[in-house]
Amino acid sequence: MRTHMCGELRPTDAGQTVSVCGWVASRREHGQNLAFVDVRDHTGIVQCVVDGANELRSEFVVRVTGTVRARPEGTANPNLPTGDVEVGDCTVEILSQAEPPPFPVADRVDADENLRLRHRYVDLRRPAMQRNLRLRATVSSAIRRSMEAQGFVEVETPTLIASTPEGARDFVVPSRLQPGSFYALPQSPQLFKQLLMVGGIDRYYQLARCLRDEDLRADRQFEFTQLDAEMSFADQADVIGVISATVVAAIRAAGREVADEIPRMTWREAQDRFGSDKPDVRFGMELVELTDAVAGTGFRALQAPCVKGIRVPGEAGMGRARIDRLTDQAKAAGAGGLVWLKMEGETLESPILKFLSAEEKSALPKALGAEPDDLLLVVAGERPTVDRVLGQLRLELGRPPVNEGGINLLWVTDFPLFEGLDGEGRPIPAHHPFTMPHPDDLDRLDAEPLSVRSQAYDLVLNGWELGSGSVRIHRPDIQQRIFSFLGIEPEEAQSRFGFLLDAFRHGAPPHAGFAFGIDRLVALLAGEENIREVIAFPKTQSGVDPLTGAPGPVDPRQLAELGLRVLPRPT
Ligand code: ASP
Asked: Sorting pLDDT into bands at 50, 70 and 90, what band is 53?
């Protein structure tokens, strides 16, 4: 139907008769029955000079045939790649009519999210959405090529499965053939990829769709896609090597610069320096240890097992209201309070100065490296709380916008095996229950479980957790021990994960793996704050698809077939 794409016509095409197809982006009258009609396809826009364009409306689908010519002197549009030419003497064929669009098809339109998603097919015509989805395809394809070049085999794992614990709620699907029984949708292919290792696949990968019933956020949808990988006879260093090569290849395919070597940091160091397990290393404002500087202080608020602070450059002028809000935030995050000091020029100012000794007044700013006009924030308490609170304040006060500061990848290693205790005093796995404890810490498992490190590692990009992985347990005895540690009794372990324990008794190679989120990676590469912008058909914040109306009721006959009855909503 067409000889050229709209966005590719240039002065060198002058004199050629061409046909282009696309949507009417705009129509401007040009007197004497002539109109300028801009025609858009995914490559861009070209101006067509049309005689008798009265019936043409925005978003009509047209085929235009005419002759390319240079635009008259002084009428070129430097903002358009095709701005030096136009298509003249046009014949226009209307291929499809269109209702007036619900919102203008242009970037930076302030259309309501619901309206955009309800008419996603119109929204997708916007240049930014076109760019984002194509960028996504480029990134996915580079990932596939890199994994295959490294000897990985793509294997599809099932979608209707038994539950895979990844710490989220399952989506469940009722079974018609076994009424009263349910499948779970995979939170990840975790157990299947481990079974593939027992099955001798050796190196597996998949661009896998994962489903987790959790509250939606800017960086989270119910369903997301991850590069899921697993390798046999491999350890942490092998996995980090493979995944680093792939993520670097994907970022370069997107036209962005990134170093070959990805820096590494232990989880402990990340907590100490950044108060986070996913540090945004695009900026400084690191946490500074002050415990020794105020040891023996007479000031009650600083008498605590841990005292740390951050230096906020040039913010000495911060108003009281903002500081009060930061204090409320710190308290909400568990701190007893927030101590602030200001360097008014060279002089230290603070409502708490009267409680500090002369040594403390000089030691605190010195330890924090304070310079004139800095604001200093200090938090005291238990170490994990202090780190968490200051980590949040650091982000709040220093984090650059999503599209600034380049691409900063970071491996965080040596995560703890457990992230804390649940209400019943049982440890909660920091990664998932299939993660191998650190060999040096195994003998502390019973006495001090919370101090046991795991062989789990995360990949972080500009402060976003891109993905996680671990060396897996491949011995049934250790797996059994971890299950019972987590309060999963042998019978329950057998009924939920018996197939895995069985598999481990049939010759399991040592194996390790990883998964990283493609939606998050592409969003960051596209400079988007919300992963919805890189997903063709996402859900809204409340988990609804305004386009198809999902989720919705089902036919009573369908329910009967499934042996289900819907209870009225509790009032
Ligand atoms: N299954 C994990 C996840 O989806 C990743 C992994 O351990 O390989 O987060």
From this structure: confident
What's the total number of domains in the chain? 3
- Asked, for residue 263, whether it belongs to a domain, the answer is no
- Give residues (CB < 6 A) around ligand 1: 166, 188, 190, 468-470, 513-515
Q: Which domain holds residue 290?
A: 284-398
45 plus 90 within the same structural domain: yes
CB within 8 A of 102, min separation 6: which ones? 111, 115, 118, 119, 122
Q: Whose CA is nearest to atom 8 of ligand 1?
A: 514
What's the confidence (pLDDT) of residue 144? 98
- Measured in angstroms, how far is the CA atom of residue 141 from the centroid of ligand 1? 21
286-308 residue pLDDT tens: 999 999 999 999 999 999 999 99
Q: Among 238, 413, 432, which residue has the most ligand 1 atoms within 8 Å of its CB, making it the best to mutate?
A: 432
Residues 232 and 288 in one domain: no
Task: Report which ligand 1 atom has the smallest distance to the Cα of 470.
Answer: 7
Residues 539, 423 share a domain: yes
- Determine the Cα–Cα distance for residues 166 and 469; give it in Å rounded to an integer: 12
pLDDT in tens, 249-293: 999 999 999 999 999 999 999 999 999 999 999 999 999 999 999
- The per-residue b/e assignment along 134-144, b for 16 or more CB within 10 angstroms, e otherwise, is ebbebbbebbb
State the distance from the centre of ligand 1 to the C-alpha of 438, rounded, in angstroms.
18
What is the overall mean pLDDT for the chain?
95
CA of 279 to the centre of ligand 1 (A): 20
- Ligand 1 centroid – CA 260 distance (Å): 24
Q: Are residues 550 and 444 in the same domain?
A: yes
Q: At what angle do helices 190-198 and 490-504 cross, to 10 degrees?
A: 40
| For the chain, percent of residues with pLDDT exceeding 90 | 86
Give me the residues paired with residue 563 across strands.
none
pTM to 2 decimal places:
0.93
